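Practice problem 4.
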């Protein structure tokens, strides 16, 4: 898997438009503004590949990126309070529609901001992944905003809150500083091989 050779494929506004899955898929989920676009750009070494925005809550789409032997699926960021009810419904339709399809789910990278307790929607997402028995890893984002000691404390607290076992895969990342990026690449490589 060459992470430097990933290209944008297509965006979809409804799950009915999704094309059948023909390669293992690595999906990225998380609340709006969690740092998903920044993490994708860092993973793939490409500044503008996924759009980083200062204003959260952009239109919900599922974006597909193609790599060698795997696809990367950028799920719409959830939980932005200021979007309309219909936009929230579109978000649910997209995410639920994606996971309800018969696809080659290799891994879900569930992003959670390391600074805060997980939101209800984060909890729902991770409960769903656990109950559906989907392979997933929790990526804690924006680690550079906390000291090492605070990071360890938050990591333990989030494991408890999300009811993940001590050995549950959880990686501490910072797109700003590059922390955890190689570890996440290793986890992805193993999941798609
Ligand atoms: P998305 O909405 O989940 O795609 O989040 P973005 O990647 O657009 O990032 C949201 C905001 O968080 C932007 O202002 C980013 O610059 C900032 N951000 C993202 N990742 C990091 C990080 O690792 N460290 C810090 N300090 N800020 C980050």
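Answer key:
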């Amino acid at each position: 898997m060459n992470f430097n050779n990933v290209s944008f494929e297509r965006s979809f506004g409804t799950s009915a438009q999704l094309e059948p899955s023909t390669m293992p898929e690595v999906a990225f989920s998380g609340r709006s503004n969690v740092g998903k676009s920044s993490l994708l750009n860092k993973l793939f070494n490409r500044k503008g590949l996924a759009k980083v925005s200062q204003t959260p809550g952009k239109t919900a789409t599922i974006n597909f990126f193609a790599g060698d032997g795997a696809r990367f699926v950028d799920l719409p960021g959830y939980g932005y309070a200021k979007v309309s009810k219909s936009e929230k419904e579109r978000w649910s339709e997209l995410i639920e529609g994606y996971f309800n399809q018969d696809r080659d789910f290799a891994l879900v990278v569930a992003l959670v901001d390391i600074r805060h307790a997980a939101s209800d929607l984060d909890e729902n997402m991770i409960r769903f992944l656990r109950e559906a028995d989907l392979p997933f890893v929790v990526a804690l984002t924006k680690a550079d905003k906390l000291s090492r000691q605070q990071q360890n404390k938050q990591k333990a607290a989030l494991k408890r809150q999300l009811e993940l076992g001590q050995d549950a895969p959880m990686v501490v990342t910072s797109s700003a500083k590059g922390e955890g990026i190689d570890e996440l690449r290793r986890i992805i490589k193993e999941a798609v091989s």
